[in-house]
Write a structure and sequence with these properties.
Elements: H1 4-20, H2 27-55, E1 64-72, E2 77-83, H3 85-104, H4 122-129, H5 131-150, H6 154-163, H7 165-174, H8 184-219, H9 227-236, H10 243-260, H11 269-276, H12 279-304, H13 306-332, H14 337-357, H15 361-392, H16 403-406, H17 408-421, H18 428-443, H19 445-451, H20 453-470, H21 486-504, H22 507-523
Antiparallel strand pairs: 1-2
Length: 544
């Protein structure tokens, strides 16, 4: 039995402990050591996640590289890991983004400038000591997210699905955006508590559903939380869930995932959290942690409750459609750069969830690609926005103008992020958004047509933001703004390159995820709708 998955999860967890426990020493030396160790650990994790993706055989078993260790034997709970194509891709996305987040956040936990007499106030000194905590928390989030993507035990997944809230809470509340103004500490605390309460509520509802699933399964001789065992038993008919029980359990799981995703109207925590967090933490929220919610809809909602998934699909599609239009409209009206990106993400998550519950191969393949492509493009967009905000010290759009004249590289990378956000052909999000819309239209034409409004609105908020910040006369506070530095270019360049590469050549990802998508559709007993106007062949072999 290979232990590659366990090692991949354990490396960032051990790195978090090591980073937090580095011995005391000179403040500056300890800060440098902390950052170097954390970045090295994230690089090792990236290599391991890449090895998992490379070893995964798309034509092999549904779950590969499986591992299982006894945990709570009396309840049939095990520490079981296994990877399918979707989990392999999303874990690799996480491992790619974490080093980028660390490099972008290199100075986010550093102290502010010293006083003229050279003294450092107590709060500033405390921030020096908390540099270790900041990078340890990032590694802890990475470890818990990767476990969630690999977990094949329902209870194990639940534990880490909830546990990742704790380090995220401290990242939001303890290391917020310094451009938030005099009320920033209070606003950060409010955003962190709101994030925690919303997601804890979803988790408590899910816990009740997890227990309910175990009780129902145990009554029929399946006293286990093993996901493949349960899904195979449900698909084969040996584990029977009544319509009422399946609907109730589905709603318990789906509610938790919809909060984390986030789906309208359970989204309201996201703009606060992303607005008050640092740019790197905001990327962790929307590009990494939130993906666990949409991933879980595919793996758990559709796998465990196929009939309920079909029952509630139309209602979920309507909520997704509202989220697409609502998020885009609110993004257009934002005055705060980071809140604009947050509302844009709500709109994008609407597309992802719509693709999942269209229950077509194109829709689900597009939704999975969208998770990856949204992670890359939004990370690039948000991190460049963070570099911009750190230079000017303001999140307000009105405080910018003419940036492209003084910092052309920064403006150019920001433009690429903006164009990717509006799904320009040739950039990665276009492929996934196109597949989602095609997959939705084939089964729900009206919803597919209305959803295209989101594309038009995306062009408005993305291009208006670029126009207002990067073009026009140079504002007074922008005149001395420096361009991107080497470290910042090292963050942005790989993300831009991947966004372009996957836009013109997405086949490596589709080859990995399509078999898992087909397996998911077979679990819910769905096939793609036949074309409305099939092409008939003549006797001579020609088409007419």
């Amino acid at each position: 039995m290979s232990a590659l998955l366990t090692v991949t999860c354990a490396v960032p967890a051990a790195g978090a402990v090591l980073t937090a426990a580095l011995p005391a020493g000179a403040i500056e030396a300890r800060r440098r050591t902390t950052k170097t160790v954390a970045l090295a650990v994230s690089a090792v994790t990236l290599a391991l996640a890449a090895a998992v993706a490379l070893r995964f055989d798309p034509h092999g078993a549904r779950y590969q590289l499986t591992e299982s260790y006894s945990w709570i034997r009396s309840f049939g709970i095990t520490f079981s890991l296994g990877v399918d194509g979707i989990g392999a891709v999303l874990a690799l996305l996480t491992a790619v983004l974490v080093p980028m987040v660390m490099l972008a956040s290199w100075h986010d936990a550093d102290p502010g400038p010293a006083a003229p007499d050279g003294t450092v106030d107590p709060d500033t000194f405390e921030r020096r000591r908390r540099t270790q905590g900041f990078f340890a928390l990032i590694l802890a989030v990475e470890a818990m997210v990767i476990v969630s993507f690999y977990a094949t035990d329902v209870f194990l997944f639940y534990v880490f699905f909830e546990a990742m809230l704790i380090p995220m809470y401290f990242l939001i509340g303890g290391f917020g955006d310094r451009a938030g103004g005099p009320e920033s500490a209070r606003q950060r605390s409010y955003a962190a508590v709101k994030f925690l309460l919303y997601n804890l509520l979803g988790g408590l509802v899910m816990l009740a559903a997890v227990i309910g699933l175990y009780v129902v399964a145990q009554d029929q001789g399946f006293g286990t939380f093993d996901l493949p065992t349960l899904t195979n038993a449900i698909a084969g008919g040996s584990l029977k869930l009544s319509g009422t029980a399946q609907n109730a359990l589905f709603l318990g799981f789906f509610f938790a995932f919809a909060v984390k995703a986030p789906l309208w109207p359970l989204h309201t925590w996201l703009p606060n959290a992303m607005g008050e967090a640092t740019a790197g933490t905001a990327v962790l929220i929307t590009a990494v942690v939130d993906k666990v919610g949409t991933f879980a809809m595919l793996r758990f909602c559709l796998g465990l409750f196929p009939d309920a998934s079909k029952t509630f699909a139309p209602a979920i599609l309507v909520l997704s459609l509202i989220g697409i239009v609502y998020g885009a409209l609110l993004a257009i009206g934002q005055k705060d750069i980071k809140r604009l990106v947050a509302y844009a993400s709500i709109s994008h998550f609407g597309f992802i969830i719509m693709g999942i519950f269209a229950l077509t191969s194109q829709g689900q393949s597009g939704a999975t690609l969208y998770m990856v492509n949204h992670g890359l493009s939004t990370a690039a967009w948000m991190l460049v926005a963070g570099f911009l905000i750190s230079r000017r010290g303001s999140r307000l759009i009105a405080d910018y103008g003419g940036v492209q004249k003084v910092a052309p590289v920064l403006a150019g990378t920001f433009l690429i992020g903006s164009l990717a956000t509006l799904s320009l052909p040739g950039l990665a999000p276009f492929v996934s958004e196109f597949l989602v819309l095609v997959g939705t239209f084939t089964r729900y034409p009206a919803i597919g047509v209305i959803a295209t409004v989101g594309i038009v609105l995306a062009a408005l908020y993305a291009l208006l933001l670029y126009q207002r910040t990067m073009t026009g006369p140079v504002k007074e506070g922008v005149r001395s703004m420096p361009d991107l530095k080497v470290r910042e270019l090292a963050v942005v360049a790989p993300l831009v390159a991947l966004t372009i590469l996957l836009g013109v050549y997405p086949e490596p990802l589709t080859d990995l995820v399509n078999p898992s998508v087909d397996a998911t559709l077979s679990q819910v007993h769905r096939t793609d709708p036949a074309p409305a106007h099939p092409v008939a062949a003549t006797s001579g072999g020609e088409q007419k």
